[in-house]
Amino acid sequence: MLTIKKVPTVVSNYQEEISETNLEGCGKNCLGKCCLPASKLPLYAFKKDELHSTENGTDESCQEQSCFLHNLLLGQWEDRMSRGLFRYDVTTCETKVIPGQYGFIAQLNEGRHLKKRPTEFRVDSVLQDFDENKFNFTKVGQEEVLFRFEPSNDHESHFFPSPPPPIASHNSCSSNVLAINVSPIEYGHVLLIPRVLDCIPQRIDHETFLLALHLAKEAANPFFRVGYNSLGAFATINHLHFQAYYLEIQFPIEKASTRPVAAMEGMHVNGVTVSQLLNYPVRGLVFEGGNTIQDLSCSVVNSCIWLQDNNVPFNLLIVDRGRRIFLLPQCYAQKQALGEVSQELLDTQVNPAVWEISGHIVLKRKNDFEDASEEKAWRLLAEVSLSEERFREVKSCIMEAAGLEETDIGLISKNPEAESIYDQLSPKSIKHLQQDCMVIH
């Protein structure tokens, strides 16, 4: 076991350099078809269990497995930090909880917008074709990859440091990979890139979203969240990817009250319920339950497909070990284009994507960080939200698309189960997650 220590990092230019040690492929040891098929990337084979386990955190074998993935991911992430593969050291960024009822989280990350790769596509269309001439993840060096992430052949999870191809009957040409985000928002910030060589544009489908749910479930840690931004909702790369990171505090959106609004109709009851966020600046829906993880996934994906097909930008947040999914239609980029966003908000240069909407707001200017208040955070996020009338229309359409029947139960929930989890685990102040982790080469 290696103890994690903070180390200085520098901007890495290795992606532009040709590796002298790699004699195969294009010479850059990338994730393209020229290099990936012959790679010896480690493999994490996850347990493909269709049922939602209610014993995460109590069953000894589950604890051991989730601890292993936790240590593996963070240990590998720290290893990439020590190699200088990040554009900056995110662990030096100041973070604080903004005083007030909601506990919005503010981070000061000066210059991230200057070092982050610029958006290279239109922001007014949710579905766009993949363009191999634009930046995509096949151009990333294999040094950024932590491991491949594939379903196992049995009902157990396994890790293969140097798997002989093929492993688990999966073609390495269409591998799912977990890679670092070189412009991280938080500690342990990674990207899940499904079937990287298939060059899927940024869109939700059944197979790949289920993969993201399995990642959240396999991690089995309430501080590990998985997020997704559609095009038009501040995704910056049109190559399918999900984001995830650790933060040792409950997000404001997770604490928000909800009211059940829908459940599966007719004889095909699958146990999925849908609630609406209450008293939160962004209107959204919360999917939870389901007899199987696939039931929950299908309901969410069918809703997302309607949004994509009807050009409604949206963000997704997966929390509570894959048991709850927040679906958040938004219109901030549209308002920007129409000149409907105030200059004060535009000057902050904050593009509210999934993390900001969830209450973790990354600020670029020191004065914005120092002057951060609940009122200002609310004002920013309120601009993201659909109007009440438009949200009602969208909600009705996606409920129909998902095969859900709107109901008027009217009960308000504060998710006491999630609150009890965080009451036990959350520290009194925010800190970057530090654990004893192993680094496997």
From TrEMBL:
In this entry, which stretches build a coiled coil?
none
Q: In Gene Ontology terms, what is one molecular function of this protein?
A: nucleotide binding
- PANTHER family for the chain: GDP-D-GLUCOSE PHOSPHORYLASE 1
Q: What class of enzyme is it?
A: transferase
Check the record and name the Pfam families matching this protein: GDPGP1_C (PF26216), GDPGP1_N (PF26217)
Native source organism of the sequence = Turnera subulata
Q: Which reaction does it catalyse?
A: GDP-alpha-D-glucose + phosphate = alpha-D-glucose 1-phosphate + GDP + H(+)
Top-rank taxon, per record: Eukaryota
Transmembrane region positions? none
Q: Supply one GO CC term from the record.
A: cytoplasm
Function text: Specific and highly efficient GDP-D-glucose phosphorylase regulating the levels of GDP-D-glucose in cells.
Gene encoding this polypeptide? VTC2_1
Query: What protein am I looking at?
Result: GDP-D-glucose phosphorylase 1
As recorded in UniProt, its EC number(s) are 2.7.7.78
Similarity annotation: Belongs to the GDPGP1 family.
Where located? Cytoplasm
GO terms under biological process: glucose metabolic process
Indicate whether Nucleotide-binding appears among the record's keywords.
yes
Q: Where is the GDPGP1-like C-terminal domain?
A: 252-403
